[in-house]
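Support reply, case 0932

Customer input (verbatim):
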Amino acid sequence: MTGGLPLGPTRPAALCVVLLAAGALGSCGSRQAGGTGPGAAPPPSGVIGHWQGRLHQRGLAPFTVRALVRSLRDSGANRVWYSGIRCAGNWTYFGRRGRAFRFREVIRVGHGGKCKGVGTVTLVPAPGGRLGYRFQGGGVVSRGVLSRVPGG
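Our regenerated output:
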């Protein structure tokens, strides 16, 4: 025996066990941006792009949202437009909570009435490259699904 491990065919097996254990421990808590495996959080690029969807809100007919998410750092680069209620504004990235990307929405055009000035938009990656959408603010909740706009 040398160094506590027997010589011969069992030494490589022991080394494999040690390496596998080290790899397993190294992957603990890897559910941050860019992690891999089932349940790992999607990378930030998953929300970057041009999106469109149909939203539902109590007391209103369904309406369309279009969002252009260009940056998780520059809120001026992220724009949102709501048809039917004729509002537009910006999204400022808050951060992530699990798989959900959170933004602070500030409406800059169309204040009042059906347009709420400030709220939180939560985007959750869904099957098929879509995003689950939820807005909460000003006493209202809107929900829907966004799809990537082709070429956007």
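We compared this against your earlier run and they match. Two observations from our side: Residues 14 and 116 are 63 Å apart (CA to CA). The chain has two domains: 1-30, 44-148. Please reopen the case if you see a mismatch on your end.
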